[in-house]
Amino acid sequence: MNDFDIKMIKKLILKGQWLLSEHALDKLLERNLRIVDVLTSILNGEILEDYPDDPRGHSCLILGKKDNKYIHTVCGFQNKSLVIITSYIPELPK
């Protein structure tokens, strides 16, 4: 899988074909985010940015919402699974 398609990303989540990176786990704990909120935000989200030239591998930024909270999530692919690289609450522009 090289191209990011939000429908494919959502399908992988619903099929349970996703992984949480160690970095993502650390950041979720640090930022007091729950994985269910991240997954829900991806399922309700859209791809904001595509990073095909990321030196760590092709990734994308997804903006989604859970309840009244917007969540940014950076994802990539490993084998045939979605990898959640990090998630955070975006700051409002000043």
What's the short version?
InterPro entries: DUF4258. The protein is 29% helix and 37% strand.
Could you describe the 3D structure shown?
With 94 residues, this protein is α+β, with helices and mostly antiparallel strands. The protein has one domain (6-88): YaeB-like fold (2-Layer Sandwich). It has helices at residues 6-14, 22-30, 35-43, and strands at residues 18-20, 46-51, 59-66, 69-78, 81-88. The chain starts with 5 loop residues before the first helix and ends in a 6-residue tail after the last strand. It holds the Pfam family DUF4258.
Topology:
Layout: H1 6-14, E1 18-20, H2 22-30, H3 35-43, E2 46-51, E3 59-66, E4 69-78, E5 81-88
Parallel strand pairs: 1-5
Antiparallel strand pairs: 2-3, 3-4, 4-5
